[in-house]
Each structure stands twice: as structure tokens, then as C-alpha cells.
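dumping this here so i dont lose it
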């Protein structure tokens, strides 16, 4: 939820600057001391706007309008990264959303109504077994499960290769 608010605000600010936020990342920094989320917006827009990334980051900070209930602090780091520290209220509401969703947390429905057939091959009963046979079954089943997680109706077809000459 907080991430969506920040992303929407970054797109709004990019529009105010006369640019699009294509290729802009909003992600967790590798080093947690840099904050909860980080964006490369200033570095992506610096070239098309013909300005230095760090100067542009400072300008972006002046244009950002994020509620205190979502972000507690915004800082510029390095060559122009913008780091966000989420407010405690935002973190608590995220935990509440996770608890409320239970085991369905993270599920998506963008594949609803779409049927998918996942085919994978079994071990050849006429030949020796090897690790690849088990891997093929595990990968096929995992792909089908991921598709179901996104709302697709997945059918699994597990073929037995017991005909023909090897």
C-alpha cells in the first residue's frame, strides 16, 4: 500500500518535470541502513532533462507530497538515489493487511478466466533414472502452482514416455 502511494507520487512528480517515469525503480535497498525503499528517479530523468542527478534529486524532494502517515523521512544518497523511510503507521497497516489476508496474502487475479495447460514429461520407464527426471516434474508442477496463484486455471499433463525406440 505504501509502495503504491510512493510510486504514484513519483509518477506525478515526473509529470511535473515534463518527463515520464519509464524505467524508474522503487525497491528495497541492499543495505537496510539506507531506508525501507529507494528510487533511481533522479538518475533516470537526469539525461533527458539535461541536469545533474543529485541536483535533480534535490528538486524532486521539493516537489514530493507524501503524507506523514506513509513516509517519515526522505533522503538523497550517493549520486542521486532517493531513499524513503516508512512511517510506523504504514508498517503497522501493512502487517494488518498481511494478517487479514492470511494464506491468500500476495495472490493476484490478473489471470482470472484464462486457461493454461502445463505439459511436462515423466521419467522414461524403459531407461535409467537420473536427477533430470525429478527436476522436470518438480519444475512443471511449480509453474502450474504459480499460474494458479495468479488466478489462472492450470491443467497439468504429465506424459509417460514409454513408447518408441530410445
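and the seq i came up w/
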Amino acid at each position: 500500500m505504501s509502495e503504491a502511494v510512493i510510486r504514484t507520487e513519483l509518477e506525478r512528480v515526473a509529470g511535473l518535470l515534463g518527463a515520464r517515469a519509464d524505467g524508474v525503480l522503487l525497491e528495497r535497498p541492499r543495505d537496510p541502513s539506507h531506508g525501507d525503499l529507494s528510487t533511481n528517479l533522479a538518475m533516470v530523468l537526469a539525461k533527458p532533462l539535461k541536469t545533474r542527478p543529485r541536483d535533480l534529486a534535490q528538486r524532486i524532494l521539493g516537489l514530493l507530497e507524501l503524507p506523514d502517515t506513509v513516509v517519515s523521512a526522505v533522503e538523497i544518497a550517493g549520486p542521486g538515489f532517493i531513499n524513503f523511510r516508512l512511517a510506523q503507521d504504514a508498517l503497522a497497516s501493512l502487517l494488518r493487511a498481511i494478517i487479514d489476508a492470511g494464506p491468500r496474502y500476495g495472490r493476484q487475479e490478473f489471470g482470472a478466466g484464462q486457461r493454461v495447460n502445463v505439459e511436462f514429461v515423466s521419467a522414461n520407464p524403459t531407461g535409467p533414472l537420473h536427477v533430470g527426471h525429478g527436476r522436470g516434474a518438480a519444475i512443471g508442477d511449480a509453474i502450474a502452482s504459480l499460474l494458479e496463484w495468479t488466478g489462472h486455471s492450470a491443467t497439468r499433463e504429465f506424459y509417460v514416455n514409454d513408447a518408441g525406440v530410445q
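The mean pLDDT is 87.
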